[in-house]
Input
Amino acid sequence: MKTLHVRAAVATLGVVALLILHLGAAGAASTTAHALIVSDQARRYLRLAYGSPTEFMGCMIGQVRGSAVYVQRVAPADVDPAHSTRTHVLPRQTCEAAGWAGTVGMIHSHPGGERCFYYFPGTEVASSDAESFARQPYPVDAIMCGDSIVWISRDRAQRQLRLADGPALMTVDHQPGNRVHSGTLAARGE
Output
């Protein structure tokens, strides 16, 4: 009879642990970021990784402070080279399973700076990048496009961050379905 009670207690603890993990992930996902701040080290890594002819994927390591996400570094995701093409990349496991603690989001590249958006221009139709982000627990997701990062938060607003030095073109935040203006860096693929 004691064994039955112990098994029931262990099963109950397991369900409670899963519930806590689920609620924790939901709490992280509900964070709405309005600023993405990327350290110099992370910027250097991204510039180097962008030179690859296939998509790369990285784990953005940092912290969330209020509505700002601070990326201190980008760690390589666990990607089998056979699962990285010019238009697709798929990790073998999560960033945490690969040993990267403190992940605040994922970033991948679009070689050539093409299709750097989360919603198809002029529509509210989510791209595969937006669909992938919706299934992740992180507060932000990003696409490396030339000298810019196009990123999204849980508010579904697409934003840009220029990585290169020098003057940046001014752009407004783009809500889902809004067309990226022809003068922006993302539209030009830079």
